[in-house]
Amino acid sequence: MDPIRVLVADDHTLVRAGIRALLQALEGVEVVAEAGDGREALALARAHRPDILLTDIAMPLLSGLELAGVVARELETTRVVILSMHASEEYARRALEAGAAGYLLKDSGLAELEIAVRAVARGETYLSPAVSKHVIAEYLRRTDGAPATGPLTPRQCEILRLLAEGQTTKGIARRLGISDKTVEAHRAQLMERLGIHDLAGLVRYAIRTGLVGPEE
User: Fold this and answer.
1) GO annotations under biological process (predicted)?
2) CATH no. for residue 158?
3) 101: region left, alpha or beta (phi > 0 left; psi from -120 to 50 alpha)
4) 182 and 123: one domain?
5) Nearest 5 degrees, angle CA 127-CA 79-CA 114?
6) Strand duo 29-35 + 4-9: pairing
7) What φ, ψ does residue 7 adopt, rounded to 5°?
8) Distance between CA 32 and CA 8 in Å, rounded?
9) pLDDT one-digit tens code per residue, 79-127
């Protein structure tokens, strides 16, 4: 199996070195390059086409959010994970809307870093648990807690909810007693019906409509 190739971007040299060391301790993860500012990160992303760009949200020359937007438009195979000190709904929402596939708090441990990297590499969206709770709660507050799932069937709503909670195809299949292919077919139908073409978009839709509830 090919390693997960990661580009690390942070304007603090020691922080960047620490993140690199943590990533290199993970099996099957390779750090292909480092960047100290947003423009350098974009140039290296274009050159190396990493699987994941792990970037600080506050970067000189080009912010992490701006970087996520450009990468999402230009590099289909590179997914951005934003590193931030802010556990607020506003920052996380802006990251997702910019095109990021993950939002990880800087005080996260090695175990959570690994979970985030592997989840995003699988095509899933990852939010640190504390952030996820804030994001979902705020969307529910704005919608008065009322889901607005439009033309979806009950089964599609169920699968969308599980996808938004970070469940894998195999996990959903086991939970619902259906085959992996059936889950993939439902996901394809969801994307076609909603006009959404990636998993991150489905997650944003589920949060926006209040389909996913806050953590207990």
Assistant:
1) phosphorelay signal transduction system; regulation of DNA-templated transcription
2) 1.10.10.10
3) alpha
4) no
5) 50
6) parallel
7) -105, 125
8) 8
9) 999 998 887 777 887 888 888 888 888 888 888 888 889 888 888 878 8
